[in-house]
Amino acid sequence: MHVFSVRTLALLCACSLSIGSHYASYILGPLKSRLAREMGTSNTEFSLLISALSLNSTWTPLVGGLMASRLGTTMTSLIATSLILVGQAVLLVGDIMESVRIMTFGMFIFGLGVSPLAVVQESIIVRFFKNHGLGLSMAFGLVVGKFSSFISARTSYPLSEHFGPRAPFVVATLLAALSFIMNLVYISVSKWLISSSGVELEAAELHHEARSRLTESVSEAQALTEVAAKKTVHISDVAKLGDVFWAYIGINVICGAIWHPFVHLAPNIIERRYHLTELEASTVSSYLLVGSTFLYPICGFIIDRLKRGPTLHMMFVVSSILTFFCYAWLSLPPNTTHTPIPAIISYAVGQGFAPLLLVILVPTLVPSKYIPTTLGAHKSLEQTGSTIFQTLAGILLDTHQSGETAPDHAKQAGYQPLLVAFGMLNLVQLFGIMGLWSLDRSRKRQVARLHDDDEYDEPNTGGRPGHGHTPAISESHSLQCRDSMVFPETPSFTPRSGEQPDPPDTTMEEEALPLLSSNDSDLSAIATPSQDGDLDVLDEFQSGLARSTTEVQRGHIFAALSLVLITSAWMLFIGTALLKLRSSSDRKGEPTVRGI
């Protein structure tokens, strides 16, 4: 019960870190028409505001994953929440000065911290709950952020109506400050949480422990340093991940393109196509985000109970079909459909659990030490897709309409090609999910066949399966056995005065195993005891790493293409900002007085 309480406290602390960032991320969508009317912002300028938020997220998640591995989650979270608070404050100043340029700069700073914080939050939850109901715990962590996003979309416009146009920005700044304070609380109790729950130490913590014990025992310090070095992940290691990983990354790019831009543009799309008021449109579109608040826990519960790889993929396919229905419905003539409600419901349900699936899939694809880096890569490429499509969407809309002066039919017509583009990309996502499913299933079947071959060879190899293991695998096994002896079961380990010995650490034996193993026979190829009591670890193929030189070379190519895509997103944003961002005097011939 004590350990359960400690884990619950850690979960609550992790959830509180992102309340401010999630709320602030969704205040602009419902205010699009108001900003255009009162500040004269164009579609492109609004898209640049949103893109500035996701622009830095094209690289900060990957760096955040590496920072979490190198500096530890506590220090990384402090840096992230500080950037979020500063960026939100600058955004508020820009709104007060009616300067889109300053607001964009504020969103730029804000975006530096958002994705690293998300990586840290997910890494903390995985760390404390990877063997204790990860699906439901991760669902709870994500649902808090999604509920904050829903509240933001639901209250942003009403706040501006009742308390002045700056009220949403003030509330967002206060919530960002609250998250920063809660982060300080987590940092102050993090050591106690770690020691009380007996979780695995991070690389940064192992280095710190090695330094602190150097005066007590040189051998212990050296052993801890060796384990920390093994847990440290370098950026070049991404290329070692297999084809299934890169298929997963490609799907993330499409997900970013069809999810985030639509949520920010939906209030304006619904307002124009169905002739609703700004309040009605913001209210209706806010329900796009409500699905996650109840579907995340349900999805997490299902995953924890079934724990079957095909279940994850099937749920992902259902999600893609539902979001496609949303875009198809909105693409139909409004005088035929009459209401956006079916599209809103379909999207809320379809996208309501898909982000959780993207996170839960990660432990099934890569070894545990790669989880922070993989979470970073997934968010990085997802935000790259979001930035590119968000910027292009604003340019596309401005080619068909010209702010508030455009005829109503022109405003409606401008959204038609945009909705068609959403639908086409959704189809690409659907086929990509099916392709990922096929690749993953093929890999698992080959793993099962290899395991069967090892069992067949066992009588001829002295009871030791895996007779044909390569030297690289043997080295991996040697490292694993050596590392497993570093922890309390080694005779040279002596707890400090007043400390209780930690329970035997078995995580090193699971290092190469996916966290959410399947009950399928496909995944029966786990480590098998040998005569001498050791465990033969999974080879690179079974653990999700590239298994051949050719696959590693493909990994380098995909990594280079990812870098090109990220660079393209930056070039598109910078070029568009230089051409389209205007000063207040350029946007309007005379100043506009906004309410205080």
Automatic annotation (TrEMBL):
Residues 451-508 are annotated as: Disordered. GO terms for molecular function: transmembrane transporter activity. One of its GO terms (cellular component) is membrane. Residues 1-24 form the signal peptide. The chain crosses the membrane at residues 48-68, 75-94, 100-120, 132-155, 167-187, 245-264, 284-303, 315-332, 418-439, 557-579. Residues 1-444 form the Major facilitator superfamily (MFS) profile domain. It is a multi-pass membrane protein. It holds the Pfam family MFS_1. Keywords: Membrane, Signal, Transmembrane, Transmembrane helix. The keyword Amino-acid biosynthesis does not apply. InterPro entries: MFS, MFS_dom, MFS_trans_sf, MFSD1. It catalyses: L-lysyl-L-alpha-amino acid(out) = L-lysyl-L-alpha-amino acid(in); L-lysyl-L-lysine(out) = L-lysyl-L-lysine(in); L-lysyl-glycine(out) = L-lysyl-glycine(in); L-aspartyl-L-lysine(out) = L-aspartyl-L-lysine(in). Its main location: membrane. It is found in: Membrane. Homodimer. Interacts with lysosomal protein GLMP (via lumenal domain); the interaction starts while both proteins are still in the endoplasmic reticulum and is required for stabilization of MFSD1 in lysosomes but has no direct effect on its targeting to lysosomes or transporter activity. Lysosomal dipeptide uniporter that selectively exports lysine, arginine or histidine-containing dipeptides with a net positive charge from the lysosome lumen into the cytosol. Could play a role in a specific type of protein O-glycosylation indirectly regulating macrophages migration and tissue invasion. Also essential for liver homeostasis. This is Lysosomal dipeptide transporter MFSD1. It comes from Rickenella mellea.
